[in-house]
Amino acid sequence: MQANFPKEYKLVLFSPAHFLLLTPTDEVSINVRVIPDYLNYLSQTVKTGQAYTILKNNKVYCCFGVFPLLPGRGEAWMIRNARADPPTLPLLRAIRSLIPTISRSMRLQRVQMVVNTQVMGAQRFAEYLKFECEGLLRAFGPDGSDYFMYSRIFD
C-alpha cells in the first residue's frame, strides 16, 4: 500500500497486538466495556478486509481499515490513540489518498462509516476523507448513543 506519509510516520499491516499498545479514545473505551471480548471481536472483524496501523516514531498512532459488508460494500473503521498528537495536514492527506486505493483493491462501490454524534473531530475527519453524511442512526451505539452514517461512493 503506497501513500506519501510524512517521514516520522510508517504504515504497517494491522495486528491485534497494536490495539494493546494504544490508549483508546473515550468512544472506543465504551465499546471495549460493552462488547464481550472486544479484542477477539476486532480481530474477527478485520480478517476479511484490509487493516493497517500507522506508527509515529515507532509508536502506535492509530489503526484503521475497511471490511466487507456485502458484495461491493464495505465499512471503514479507525481507532486513534488518545495520547497521540492531533494529525497534521500531510498525515491527513496520506490517509485520504488510501481510501480510493483500498476501495479499488476490494472492488467496493460504496464505503460507509459510522461516527458518534458527540465526536465533532471524527465528523470533520469523515468529511475531510470525502464521506458524506447520510443521516442519523438513533440509539445505534453499544451504549445507546446516536451515530451519523457517512458514505463515499466510487465509480
Describe the fold and architecture:
The structure is a single chain. The chain has 155 residues and is α+β, with helices and mostly antiparallel strands. The protein has a domain at 9-111: Aminopeptidase (3-Layer(aba) Sandwich), CATH 3.40.630. It has five helices and seven strands, in the order βαααβββαβαββ. The chain has helices at 16-20, 26-34, 38-46, 89-105, 120-128, and strands spanning 9-13, 50-56, 59-70, 73-80, 110-116, 132-137, 147-153. A seven-stranded mixed sheet has the order 1-2-3-4-5-7-6, with helices on one face. The radius of gyration is 15 Å and the shape is globular.
Indicate the CATH topology of the domain at 9-111: Aminopeptidase
Strand content: 25-35%
How does the helix and strand content classify structurally? Answer: alpha+beta
Distance between the termini: 20 Å
Query: Could you name the CATH class of the domain at 9-111?
Result: Alpha Beta
Shape type: globular
Low-confidence regions: none
Radius of gyration: 15 Å
Run of helices and strands: EHHHEEEHEHEE
The quaternary structure here is single chain
* CATH homologous superfamily (4th level) name of the domain at 9-111: Gcn5-related N-acetyltransferase (GNAT)
How many separate helices?
Answer: 5
Query: Average pLDDT, to the nearest integer?
Result: 93
The CATH level-2 architecture of the domain at 9-111 is identified as: 3-Layer(aba) Sandwich
Question: Biggest β-sheet, characterized?
Answer: 7 strands, mixed
Strand order of the largest sheet: 1-2-3-4-5-7-6
Summarize the structure.
The chain is of the alpha+beta class. It has five helices and seven strands; from the N terminus they run E-H-H-H-E-E-E-H-E-H-E-E. Helix content is 32%, strand content 34%.
